[in-house]
Design goal:
heterodimer, A: mainly alpha, 4 helices, B: 222 residues, mainly alpha, 0% strand, elongated
Chain lengths: 100, 222
């Protein structure tokens, strides 16, 4: 239950950040091609927010379970998977000239 | 008469707020360091929260974000192959249920949102390309200024000539009208016409970094 509540809290925070950024009028005015995916209709907005929260919570739960299993098996394995993914991400950014 | 309403003024003021910037306007070694921290933190946050906002080209980028989403769903199944506990079957059921729920939620989500923005979830545009696009597609000076001078200057390197020309043609008017978004301290020396550069104090002119301690601690604009 504790883990579930933590995942939901993470999901809620994540959804709140994304939602607030997207519905923010100055953001939509300045970057109209990026901000605006949240519909303008009230009920659709509420539904989108709940979906974002749930998606984020299940996403968090999946990775947490995966990391917990790797940590129980071998912490080096966890470091390799998590660190390796970040390293690949940074390398791709560098190769594409998108690092800074 | 170009009198702005209170709301418009608030929106324009918002543009020169350093909290809205993705990158600190730092170049050189500290720029590399801040980028490494920025991207690493962004990646970790994306992985653990799936925060949709981080699909922004200044963050992970659309494709990298979506690939992260899929990798996070695959990782537990990969981890399960290595896991040697007694409860592997129960964990497998949990993972399959979680994946199915996640998939259904995503389908419903994409049926709910405005699909004109679908491209932002799979875009491959870089931060620099996006900034150039923002400048060139801007419909007013506030948007252009925001794109050109509140992001890293190196992002707009291919269009520096175009930006200099735009500044040269408009800066006298901005100095006269003093719109709230126009913060001359944000404009690097090389973008200012010589006479304006001299009028602003030449070598000793006040410059502003994107990181303002006063604003960060909530003491308002400098």
């Amino acid at each position: 239950m504790s883990i579930l509540i933590s995942a939901l809290t993470t999901g809620y925070s994540s959804a709140m950040i994304s939602f607030d950024m997207d519905v923010d009028l100055p953001h939509r005015k300045m970057q109209p091609k990026f901000y605006g995916y949240v519909p303008d209709d009230h009920s659709a907005r509420g539904r989108t927010f709940m979906l974002m929260t749930a998606i984020s919570a299940t996403h968090n739960l999946s990775l947490s379970v995966g990391c917990a299993m790797l940590a129980l098996t071998d912490t080096n394995l966890l470091t390799t998977f998590v660190g390796g993914e970040i390293a690949v991400f940074l390398a791709v950014k560098l190769l594409r000239g998108d690092f800074m | 008469m170009s009198q702005q309403s209170g709301t418009e003024r608030g929106e324009l003021k918002h543009l020169t707020n350093p909290h809205n910037r993705y990158f600190a306007r730092i170049e050189g070694f500290f720029g590399v360091l801040s980028s490494a921290i920025h991207h690493s933190m962004g990646k970790v946050i994306t992985n653990f929260s799936g925060c949709l906002h981080l699909r922004h080209p200044f963050g992970n980028g659309g494709t990298a974000f979506s690939l992260s989403m899929m990798w996070v769903q695959a990782l537990p199944f990969v981890a399960l192959q290595y896991y040697e506990g007694d409860d592997t079957e129960a964990v497998m059921i949990l993972l399959v249920c979680s994946f199915c729920i996640w998939l259904i939620l995503n389908i419903v989500f994409f049926c709910t949102i405005d699909l004109d923005f679908m491209g932002t979830f799979f875009g491959t545009i870089t931060a620099a390309q996006y900034t150039v696009e923002l400048f060139q597609n801007a419909t007013n000076d506030a948007m252009k200024f925001d794109a050109a001078f509140t992001n890293r200057i190196s992002f707009t390197k291919p269009i520096h000539g175009e930006i200099k020309e735009w500044v040269r043609l408009n800066i006298d008017r901005w100095r006269l009208e003093a719109p709230e978004w126009f913060v001359v301290e944000l404009v690097p020396d090389e973008f200012l016409p010589v006479e304006v550069y001299e009028a602003e104090g030449g070598e000793g002119r006040k410059r502003r970094n994107s990181v303002s301690m006063r604003q960060m601690v909530g003491l308002g604009a400098e």
